[in-house]
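Replying to the earlier thread about multi-chain prediction with a worked example.

Input:
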Amino acid sequence: MRRALREKRSGLRPCDFETARIDTYVGTVLALDDVRVRPDLLDFDCRNNRLAQLCLEQDGFAGQVAAARDRYGAGRIGFYLGTSTSGLHATELAYRRRDPETGALPADYRYAETQNAYSLGEFVRRYLGLTGPGFVVSSACSSTAKAFGNAARMITAGICDAAVVGGADSLCLMTLYGFHSLGLTSPGPCRPFDADRDGISIGEGAGFALIEKADRARSGATLLLGVGESSDAYHMSTPHPEGLGARIAMEQALDSAGLQPRDIDYINLHGTATKTNDASEDKAVFEIFGPETPCSSTKGATGHLLGTAGITEAIVSILAIECGLMPGGANTRSVDPAMKSNYLLENRQAKVTRVLTNSFGFGGSNCSLVLGVAQ
Amino acid sequence: MRVFVEGVGLLGPGLRGWEAARRVLTGEEPFCSASTVIGTSDLLPPAERRRTPVPVKLALAVGQEAFENAGRDAAATATVFTSSSGEGETLHHMCEALASAEREVSPTRFHNSVHNAAAGYWGIATRSREASTSLCAYDTSFTAGLVEAATQVASRGKAVALIAYDQPYPEPLHSARPLLASFGAALVLAPYATRRASATLELAVLPGDERPTRMSDSGLEKLRLGAPAARALPLLEALARKTQGDVVLDFLTEARLRVTVSRC
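Result:
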């Protein structure tokens, strides 16, 4: 991901997901077709859990959790994960195989292990051998950002000593056709904050992080400095036009971190590339941060990963700090002149110590995180 | 963790609101299972009311009752929604449409399909811009929600409402995941003993597989096991009876939540 960000690469390509016939671009994890879930977890086999497993096997993450399990005990590590559609694609496929006489779903359809929102939680829990308390957050596109708040509260309350956060959200027909029905899918690769932006590119992805108490973490680890959560109280699928809910989430995140707007070096925007989302987010960002603070959306590179946008962009924020890189927004050609924030089109190398990252979802569910290194 | 119960909302089969259900839970009246009656909530404007799916109506109804009993302003209170089943009817219609040749899906149905649909409508209805989350932990979703709500009360030092709800699926999903009945329960939890507070809950997450508290009435016990949100019943019974003592709720397979209930 470091290299992809440095090269401003976009993984978006014309939609060829399953039988979808929609004129749009998607971010597909191509390796998924070859993934086989671990034999003891075969009941959980579906696109979403394959994606989760593929991710758990990257970067030595499962090994790090195993080491934490030795340190804390399996029962003292919680798991707070997010997804918007879980293994819904398994249900979509099952509905094509209904009994023509009775309408029944095929006998091999497994609801609990695929469709239920908690399927991801149980799969990851078993894969990592955790017995601590946990659950799945499903608040649409803010899910895995909010999971950071859950983990922090649980650790503070002494319910666990460490926690796995993150999640998986895989492509399915429901989101492709659903966003298309709302007129929100772009026919090309999405262009956040562009004057000619015309909608989102849906992607799939997974990401995980291990959260520990600051005094137990390895030196140099990124700190979760603040979390802000709010509701728009406005509309199910349209953000508040003035970005009111977004503003409250960002202000709360700064407050809980004990920071001022000027303390933030870079903002990773939600920036989905719909007309309304980007306009309202720009208003909210400008109102708090003014015209200076560099900001960008990385959705031109990844697409909108829906429930896993939060963890993905938290990881981008951590990489921005580690690499001293503020990523320029891929695909965007010219920033909408109506936007007042300092949107980055090109990568910028600079010292980054604190990042604010935004995730906003359907139902007006907003979450902002502040990540940083100790001063 | 300690929280104070300010208000309760409840709807289930033969349990028509907290006041009426209390008499059943205390044993003053027998439990007679009958279809859950979900009244029309006046919280939403008529146009929105027509568009809201049944699980959302159920969540709004029990949430509203809990806030009325607590005498607290919903607009200023954070919420934790928890459900195992989410939006079953909407899911069914979407999957049917996607299995058809035309694949014509309704944009309203699509935005109603999210697990946090109830939370979204709650925000619109109550004008609450406070934090809200939507959780799932399969059969133990109520326990997960209660733990989350209590940690929020502790960390924010402010009241938080827990709204748990489950609505049976239509066929063919019902056969794959049979739920016995429509059930919703809501608790308004405060960080200190307010005038309205009726009980104190001391919460502890424990490892192990201790047997969860059962209902003595066989009909209520069947309901407890038949609808995930109804796993709240032993706690609701303790609140109705104003008894002091421990209630054990299951939390996934390898943990339990012990709730020590006392009067305040």
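The mean pLDDT of chain A is 97.

Feel free to reuse this layout for your own posts.
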